[in-house]
Amino acid sequence: MKYQGLLDSPLSFDAYFGEPSRDGDQGFEIREDGTVFFRIKAPNAKEVVIDQFGSLSPLRRVDDENWEGVADLGRGFKYIFVKIDGADVLCPYLPIGYGCCRPMNYIDIPVPGEDWDRLADVPHGAVTRRYFPSAITGKHEICLVYTPPAYDPNRKYPVLYLQHGYGENEIGWVFQGHVGRIADLLLSEGRMEEMLIVMGCGMVKGESKEHTAELFPKILLGELIPYIEAHYNVYTDKWHRAMAGLSMGSFQTSLTTLTHPELFGWAGLFSGFLRAPWSQGPEPHLALLDDGEKFNASFKVFYRAMGTEDQFFDRFLEEDKLLAEKPVKLLRRTFPGGHDWSVWRRCVHDFLPMIFKD
Questions:
Q1: With 80 as the cut, is the pLDDT of residue 212 above it?
Q2: Which residue, 170, 178, 181, 286, is the most exposed by fewest CB within 10 angstroms?
Q3: Sorting pLDDT into bands at 50, 70 and 90, what band is 17?
Q4: Containing H/E element for 172?
Q5: Contact 145, 92 (CB under 8 A)
């Protein structure tokens, strides 16, 4: 079956080089060895570069208009910047997602041996966009809701609230994380329980118009969970409610679940921060870690996972030391990779089969 990675892009298209008279000669091609061929039209440019957060792959001019080159970006999901004469340019002929607080070009390069997020010939669930009013932000907020392939509104389901990271939004876990594909395949293999997966936007602003990561948990508890429970047939006890998130979303998960263990029975921190990486102040939600009996009775799984090349790995080691002094049981995993979607896909693929099990 042909590579179909772009079917999960917000702007879905098949990458090919078409008619030059219609600018169809621009684009990219992922080669069998994992390298990527680029062709970008920039008639008056002096320099065209593919920038992967400081790792530069210059393209070469091949005629009066076009620039070409082959870049080795590594495997997995890779955000990239197209720089023309030093300026960032969003290229319409490359896949477009949302990250770094802006629309971003990216390349999604298949990882050998990791086909558990492929678009397979199995039953597929649905992702629905829902709007709910927020008194906290003063406007309607958005969430995406994954329902399993055999979804029956007359049955009750458990719910996983799954959060993205800083600079991203509610679409990230679907378009970048492939969580729908991953869940479909796990369900087809009988490896996970049927559930709803709810993805909200954690980059919210209050009346002050300033973003704060601590604001989303208030929306989650006071508005999003009540909305889901009013509009879907779901269980409302803690043992049928889980929360997980990546990076900033992992801190929001830590803050929410440790503050309200009566509401959540399962927690997942991917590139996982127990503490806010931007703050050195007091963090009262960590007090639960000192009560091992209560903590261990509150969570059937409290999961931490991160990439071995993560830029915050030293911070995670510090939290390892903190946890070693606490009487609590957690599950810690590592995966190859950095602070990126390739690792977070591995995390959610590992985590989903663990939750809502007796």
A1: no
A2: 286
A3: low
A4: helix 172-175
A5: no
Span between the terminal Cα atoms of the chain, in Å: 37
Pairing of strands 241-246, 55-58: unpaired
For residue 190, the one-letter residue type is G
Helices 341-351 and 179-188, interaxial angle, to 10°? Answer: 30
> How far apart, in whole angstroms, are the C-alpha atoms of residue 141 and residue 111?
35
Three-class SS state of 164: coil
DSSP 296: H
Residue 228's φ and ψ, nearest 5 degrees, are -60, -45
pLDDT at 138 over 50: yes
Q: What is the pTM of this model?
A: 0.93
Q: Can you point out the beta strands (E) in 31-170?
A: 36-41, 48-52, 55-58, 60-61, 66-71, 76-84, 87-89, 96-99, 102-109, 126-134, 139-147, 159-163
| Predicted confidence (pLDDT) per residue in 306-343, tens digit | 999 999 999 999 999 999 999 999 999 999 999 999 99
User: Distance between CA 130 and CA 146 in Å, rounded?
Assistant: 11
Task: Tell me how crowded residue 262 is: count the other CB atoms within 10 A of its CB.
Answer: 9
